[in-house]
Amino acid sequence: MEIIKSGAKYSAIVGIGEELKQLSKDSGKKYLMLNRGINRVTKINLTETVKNIDFDTEKMQFYAPTTGMFPLKKAINTEFFQSTVKEDEISITAGGMNALNLIFQVLNTRKVYVQSLYWGAYLNLFKIQNTPYDFYHSIQSIYENPEEYANATVIICDPNNPAGDKSDDALLLKLVSKLEKQNTTVIWDGPYRRLFMDSSDNLYSKLAQFPNVIICESFSKSIGLSGQRLGFIYSTNEEFNTELAIRLLYSGNGINTFAQLLVEQLLVSEEGKKAVSDFKRITTQVIKKNIAFLIENKLLADEFYQNSVPKGIFVILKKPYQELLKYRIGSVPLNYFSQRKNIDPMAYSRICVSVPHADFIRFFKSVK
Questions:
Q1: Domain that holds residue 330
Q2: What is the pLDDT of residue 95?
Q3: Are strands 349-352 and 314-317 parallel, antiparallel or unpaired?
C-alpha cells in the first residue's frame, strides 16, 4: 500500500499531555496540566438550556443544511455582528481548525503570513494543503510595511496563541484598512476574543465592511464547548462562499445538528444567555487573577508584552519546560510556537491560565 505523506506532524502538545499523565501515574502525584488550551476554571451549565431542544424532530434526525441551520446563522448575526450582515455570508463549520483548513483549501494566494509567535497547527495545516507560508514579526511590523504583504494573505490572531497578548482594536482596524489597499486577504482568527466580550462588542461588524476579510470563529473557547466542535466562517466574497459550500458538502455532508441547536439556544434563550454569561464571568475573573499572580511574582516573560497586554487564556513564562516539571507543572516549550531569531525559545514555556485559582497558586507558590 502506498500513501500520500503530508509532511505534517502529530500534535506535540497531545504527546506532552500523555507524558504528563504517565508521570502522574508513576509518581502517584497530581500534575497541573497547563499544556492544552482548554478552559478548566468551570464548566458551562447546560442543564436548563438543553430542555429547550426537542430531540424527536426531523431537523434533529435528518441532515442539516450544508452551510448551517438558518436559526443559528441568525443568532450569530445578532450576537457577533449586531444584525448588520447577511446570514448567507455565514458558514457553519466543525470548529475552528476545520474552518481554517477549509479556508486554506479555498484560497488561491501567493503566500500566507503568520506571526512568528504562532499556533503550531497553522504550519501543519499549511503542509497538508501545500500552502506557501512565511512569518511576520509583529502587528507593528506589518503596520509599518503593509506593501510587503500585497496580494498575499495575513493571519491575525488576537488575543494571540501562544502569548495571549491583546493589541489595541483601533490599531488593528487601521492595519486591516492598510492591508485592504494592498489587496491583501486578512484571515481574522479570533477564538479567544469573545470569552472576554459580550454582544456589545462591534469589532466584527466593522471588520465585515472590508471585502478582503475572512472571519474565522469557534465556540470552543468562548463558551467552553470544545467537545461540540462548532465554529463559523464569515466572508462577503460570493465566489469564496460558493466554493466553501462545496467543500463543506464533501468534507462532511453538513455539520452536527445537535451542536448547532445547542449553540443556537445558548445564544438566544434566556437560560442559554445566563449559562454563557455565568461561564464567561467566572472564567475571566480567575484568568485575570492567575495572570496577576504571575506578574506579581515576576514569572511572566514581560518582553513579549511590550506593545500589548496579557489577556488571553495563554501566557509565556520565563521558565523552561523542564524547570516547571520539577514543580509538577505541565507546559509546552516555546520552540513549538516560535520562529523568533532573537530569543532562545527553550528558555520559555507557554501555559494555559484558565484553571482554578486555588490549584494555580498551590503549584506555583514555590516557583522562583
A1: 12-44+272-364
A2: 95
A3: antiparallel
Do 286 and 265 belong to one domain? no
Residues 235 and 204: beta-carbon distance below 8 Å: no
Q: What is the mean pLDDT of residues 239-249?
A: 97
pTM for the predicted model, two decimal places:
0.95
Same domain, 197 and 338: no
Contacts with 85 (C-beta within 8 Å, 6 or more apart), sequence order:
77, 205, 208, 234, 236
Q: Where are the alpha helices (H) located in the chain, listed in sequence order? A: 12-27, 58-61, 70-81, 96-106, 120-129, 139-144, 169-181, 203-207, 219-222, 238-252, 257-268, 270-296, 321-326, 357-364
Secondary structure (3-state) at 61 = helix
Distance CA 1, CA 3 (A): 7
Is the sign of the CA dihedral 141, 142, 147, 149 positive or negative?
positive
Q: Which CATH number does the domain housing residue 344 bear? A: 3.90.1150.10
From 269, 292, 311, the end of a domain falls on 269
pLDDT digits (tens, 9 = 90+) for 55-113: 998 888 889 999 999 999 999 999 999 999 999 999 999 999 999 999 999 999 999 99
Average pLDDT over residues 343-355: 96
CA of residue 368 relative to chain centroid, distance = 30
* SS3 of residue 154 by DSSP: strand
